[in-house]
Design goal:
The chain is mainly alpha-helical. It has helices spanning 3-16, 20-53, 59-69, 74-85, 100-136, 141-151, 153-168, 172-178, 188-198, 201-234. The protein has a single domain, classed as MetI-like (MetI-like fold, Orthogonal Bundle), CATH 1.10.3720.10.
Length: 235
């Protein structure tokens, strides 16, 4: 049996037997990415809606900034958080560096522009579609916001999934601020990088399979949400 096939069988065994180390790494990865995604949704969606519906000084600059930061390199986000949380940084006294919370902050900064920019586009598109009707009913942008959010809920759900997909697959930022410490800050992506460098492929392949399964699940959920939105819109 070739080493590659043997590693694949070992990876399958780790998954089927719910290896404790594997479960710990996956659990931490999900906790960090879900926490960052939830925070990004709570902050980013209001920012996106505000940029879509209201005119204020600096709005155009904000829109351009959000669109530009959608491609923010993860290592830059990690470096920014590291400088803030390091001992010589402004928040160094909190002692958050090399902790799961530091990784949440890094992923939050990374996906916030994605959630905000995509939310802005969703709300803006719905406002353009229903603006005349809503204004005829006496609803300006502020009063129309709940209606627009409800009507675009499936599209906004895909926005959240897009943010989660970016977060769960991220490696550079969490490596910088988390340190890839065993049983403390070791996530799926950082473990894969470490195990491949060590030549230990079984755990890396097991985590890779789980990451692929998560990616397929996220994309499947996006397509399902779009399908439901199309059916809802056709009723």
């Amino acid at each position: 049996m070739s080493p590659l096939v043997e590693a694949l069988w070992q990876a399958a065994a780790l998954i089927l037997h719910a290896d404790s180390d594997l479960a710990e790494i996956v659990g931490l990865s999900l906790a960090v990415s879900l926490g960052a995604t939830a925070l990004a949704a709570l902050v980013g969606m209001p920012i996106g809606a505000m940029a879509a519906l209201f005119r204020f000084p600096g709005r155009r600059a904000l829109v351009v900034l959000l669109d530009a930061l959608m491609g923010l390199p993860p290592v830059v986000a990690g470096l920014f958080v590291y400088l803030i949380l390091s001992r010589s940084g402004p928040l160094g006294f909190l002692g958050l560096l090399y902790s799961p919370l530091a990784m949440v902050i890094a992923q939050f900064i990374l996906i916030l522009p994605i959630v905000a920019a995509l939310s802005r586009q969703v709300v803006e598109d719905h406002w353009r579609e229903y603006e005349e009707q809503l204004r005829s009913l006496g609803a300006g942008p502020g009063r129309a916001l709940p209606t627009l959010l409800w009507d675009g809920r499936f599209s906004l759900f895909t926005v959240v999934l897009a943010g989660f997909g970016r977060a769960i697959a991220e490696v550079g930022a969490v490596m910088i601020v988390g340190g890839n410490i065993a049983h403390v800050t070791r996530t799926m992506t950082t473990t894969i990088a470490l195990e491949v460098n060590k030549g230990q492929l079984a755990l890396a392949m097991a985590l890779g399979i789980i990451l692929i399964a998560l990616a397929v699940s996220v994309n499947g959920s996006v397509h399902a949400a779009k399908h439901v939105a199309q059916r809802w819109g056709g009723q």
